[in-house]
Design goal:
Elements: H1 2-15, H2 17-45, E1 57-66, E2 69-73, H3 80-87, E3 91-99, E4 104-107, E5 110-113, E6 117-120, H4 124-127, E7 132-135, E8 146-150, H5 151-158, E9 167-170, E10 173-181, E11 194-197, E12 206-207, E13 210-211, E14 222-227, H6 233-254, E15 258-265, H7 285-312, H8 314-326, H9 331-363, H10 366-370, H11 382-407, H12 412-417, H13 424-460, E16 470-474, H14 478-482, H15 484-492, E17 497-503, E18 512-520, E19 523-534, H16 538-542, E20 546-549, E21 562-566, H17 567-572, E22 582-585, E23 592-598, E24 613-617, E25 624-629, H18 634-648, E26 656-658, H19 659-665, H20 668-702, H21 704-712, H22 717-751, H23 762-788, H24 792-796
Parallel strand pairs: 6-11, 8-10, 19-24, 21-23
Antiparallel strand pairs: 1-2, 1-14, 1-15, 3-6, 3-14, 4-5, 7-10, 8-11, 9-10, 12-13, 16-25, 16-26, 17-25, 18-19, 18-22, 20-23, 21-24, 22-23
């Protein structure tokens, strides 16, 4: 029986090549999108799950509160983990990570820039899974002044030669390479390239042999704890209360503060919803939901195409169905045969889609466009194969169930008389399905355009300082800092350079956070502020506006005597006149005073509102050399700067970037999200148009005699197109009306991630409907035009 069904199916599909190809194309595209999405979600949801002990690794983060202060930080005090290990037997070991002071590696007088350099503990290889290529995993970091590097760094420094026992310099220390580990997978929340043995002890943590509680309130490193099997998180947190009272609260009580410990499981960090300061880049779980909904909507659109085309052609298959029933086929076997037909087409589409997904992932630039990186490893995961089979079966059933039920109801007597006509219910269902297709397609396209509006708004919004024509040179090397004055003098002689400054912080990319004592309500109170450091040229270089008082002159003797705040800080403190208000760092004995107020500017990305800020004077060269230049002829400027740099600091490479590009990178995740949804919206529309092409071709073929008569009576081709297109136009307009509020609600929820939102453009909604109308009109026009070209005598000769 199955062989007979297969024979009938293949014969039918071959006889109807055009509609078979349309169905296969739609199903293949839908399944390809689903396979790519499955692999993408698998990659995203498996963050940090490659670690062998990952289910027992936790990161400690902290919520620290006090009057005027609130830190929600991913970092901990380096003293915390050893203290916890002594008092809690459920802790097996730990690994702390403290960033290196200078992010560079020197080998034989040649310096290489590298961001991800950390000091850590020798047990890091027990906490994290590191696959060693060279060296001994167990003892690699057991000795002082030892270092392990990634495969990437090894190839950059030594090529194919062995790196073991080679000496490199980091932070002014000579270190021996004792191990090389494989590059970490992309789906890890914490990436490191170089790990150095040993975490430095902070001197102020112990005073005269007595532990200083304040040290725990000053986090400076990431703490990862490996718990023993059977760890009970709730019980640990209950026991921690006594530890908290003993070690945290002696200082906490002095400042009327609170401390709350938060334990995050390793695999849950990347998609954790809570906002934590100084955390690594995190994913948005809402994006996964949106992508999943859109991705599987694409597949459903392909299923709708199949249903529409199958039921629309019911009249052509009526006689076949009638003959099958006369020959003894009952309704159940007939439905099974029609479902089998659907499953055959889905199975063929599956083979094609697996091939397309493989080509898309391994050989196209699609993933680099989205800034994602995973391999086509579908067959390496039995769970994905099982899910794919379920998906295929469901697709086959969804596509074929309604046509099977609909076609099996055909009465053999009417069918064999040759006058079977589909009832009106089938037509209304098809229209409803087409309406649903366009609601999805127009809705996704509208959302894409509104997202683009928001991103363009962020790019064009005034930040309160000049982000363009700012060149940032990395000068973390101590030699580069000592040569700052020389470089500054030479640069300022260049007529294309307007100003030169130096700082350890940059607005938009690198901002500090400090607790100060400030004059408020007649007394000195503690208050947390975001901080930037700058010299006397900082304000001029960035084009910031001074609202009150003065800025630093450059002859200040110390950096804690004078302060400049922003307008938000002055408002928060209730300072109608901020000039000469007392202010100082938390432990400062002799307070300084406020000398100026700068206009508010966005020193974070536009996801965040403007917060209270203090600009602290620093007359020492910082980590960044900042150059403001006149527009035009940038290539000559860079060449001149590079020549000056190489003459002044020959052994240290020039590492520079443009500030506006760095600021654009803040929205990279948003742009990638928009790119993915744009791709999905194009696919939605394309699949909808595939189905519409089939339906239009079928409807036109059914009305070819009507078209012939209208041509004989003098109708123009455009008039015939208008008649054929009128019903579809009503459906598209209705779909636009339905999708508009849905898109509006979804975009409003998405823009809640930004402190500044672009106004919702109803023009974008209209554009989506116009695009759908024009594309549909083009398809209908082409089909009608080809049909209307035929001589009416050929169409009407049998009438």
């Amino acid at each position: 029986m199955n062989f007979i069904n297969l024979k009938f199916t293949l014969r039918f599909l071959w006889r109807n090549k055009f509609f078979t190809l349309l169905n296969l194309l739609g199903l293949t595209l839908g399944l390809t999108a689903s396979i790519w999405l499955m692999l993408y979600l698998k990659n995203e949801l498996s963050y940090d799950k490659y670690h062998e002990n990952g289910d027992r690794v936790y990161r400690f983060s902290h919520l620290i509160k006090a009057p005027g202060v609130e830190f929600n930080t991913a970092f901990s005090a380096p003293e915390l983990s050893p203290m916890l290990a002594e008092e809690f037997p459920e802790i097996e070991t730990y690994a702390r990570f403290s960033p290196a002071n200078r992010r560079e590696v020197t080998l034989k007088n040649e310096t290489f820039r590298e961001r991800d350099i950390f000091y850590t503990d020798s047990d890091v290889t027990k906490v994290f899974t590191l696959n060693f290529i060279e060296g001994n995993l167990e003892s690699a970091l057991s000795e002082p002044h030892s270092v392990i590097i990634s495969e990437n760094i090894k190839e950059r420094l030594f090529g194919n030669d062995s790196a073991i026992n080679q000496i490199i310099e980091i932070d002014g220390n000579n270190l021996k390479i004792t191990g090389v580990f494989e590059n970490q997978p992309e789906n890890t929340h914490f990436k490191f390239q170089v790990l150095i043995s040993g975490i430095a002890q902070r001197e102020f943590a112990f005073q005269d042999g007595v532990f200083n509680s304040e040290a725990l309130w000053n986090p400076s490193c990431a703490n990862y704890i490996l718990m023993k099997p059977g760890f009970d998180k709730a019980r640990f947190l209950e026991k921690f209360k006594a530890f908290n009272e003993k070690y945290f609260m002696p200082f906490g009580n002095k400042i009327n503060g609170e401390h709350h410990l938060r334990i995050q499981k390793l695999a849950e960090i990347h998609y954790d919803k809570d906002k934590i300061e100084d955390d690594f880049a995190k994913g948005n779980p809402n994006n996964l939901i949106v992508f999943s909904i859109i991705g599987f909507s694409i597949l459903f659109l392909a299923c709708i195409n199949y249903m529409n085309l199958s039921t629309a052609r019911a009249g052509l298959r009526a006689r076949e169905i009638g003959i099958r029933k006369v020959l003894g086929s009952d309704s159940i076997s007939l439905r099974m045969a029609l479902l089998f037909e659907s499953l055959v087409q889905v199975s063929v589409a599956l083979i094609l889609s697996v091939t397309m997904a493989w080509l898309l992932i391994e050989y196209s630039g699609f993933q680099s466009l989205l800034n994602v990186n995973f391999s086509f490893n579908l067959f390496a995961h039995p769970d994905l194969i099982g899910l794919l089979l379920v998906l295929v079966i469901c697709t086959g059933l969804i596509s074929g169930l309604y046509p099977a039920l609909y076609l099996a109801k055909i009465k053999p007597v009417k069918a064999l008389k040759g006058n079977w006509v589909a009832d009106r219910s089938g037509s209304w269902i098809r229209r409803g399905l087409v309406l649903f297709q366009f609601v999805i397609s127009i809705g996704v396209l509208t959302g894409t355009l509104l997202m683009k509006d928001q991103l363009n708004f962020l790019q064009d919004k005034e930040l309160g300082y000049d982000k363009d024509q700012i060149l940032v040179i990395n000068s973390q090397d101590s030699l580069a800092r000592t040569k700052f004055k020389v470089l500054k003098e030479v640069f300022e002689q260049n007529p294309q350079i307007e100003a030169v400054s130096s700082s350890n912080f940059l607005p938009g990319t690198d901002v500090g956070q400090t607790v100060f004592m400030v004059e408020k309500d007649g007394e000195m109170q503690q208050q947390e502020f975001k901080t930037l450091q700058g010299d006397a040229n900082y304000l001029e270089t960035f084009g910031m506006t001074l609202k009150e008082g003065t800025f630093y002159r450059g002859d200040e003797t110390r950096g804690n005597a004078y302060f400049v705040v922003n307008e938000t800080a002055a408002r928060m403190l209730g300072w109608e006149n901020a000039i000469d208000k007392k202010m100082g760092f938390f432990h400062q004995e002799e307070f300084g005073r406020v000398i100026g107020v700068v206009g508010d500017f966005n020193f974070f990305s536009l996801h965040n509102p403007i917060e209270p800020l203090v600009i602290v004077f620093n007359n020492q060269p910082g980590s960044y050399l900042i150059v403001r230049f006149r527009p035009g002829n940038e290539e000559n400027l860079i060449a001149s700067i590079k020549s000056t740099w190489e003459k002044t600091i020959p052994n240290y490479p020039l590492n520079y970037s443009f500030l506006n590009q760095s600021l654009r990178d803040q929205y990279e995740a948003d742009k990638n999200q928009n790119t993915l949804i744009t791709s999905m919206s194009i696919l939605c529309i394309f699949i909808s148009l595939i189905g519409l092409s089939g339906l239009s071709a079928f409807n036109v073929s059914q009305r070819r005699k009507e078209i012939g008569i209208r041509k004989v009576l003098g109708a123009m081709t455009r008039q015939i197109i208008q008649i054929i297109f009128s019903d579809t136009l009503k459906i598209i307009v209705l779909a636009g009306i339905i999708s508009a509020p849905i898109s509006y609600w979804v975009i409003n929820k998405w823009t809640e991630n930004f402190a500044y939102q672009a106004p919702v453009s109803f023009f974008s909604m209209v554009i989506s409907v116009i695009v759908a109308v024009l594309l549909t009109l083009s398809i209908v026009s082409i089909i009608v035009w080809f049909t209307s070209r035929k001589n009416p005598s050929e169409t009407l000769r049998y009438e």
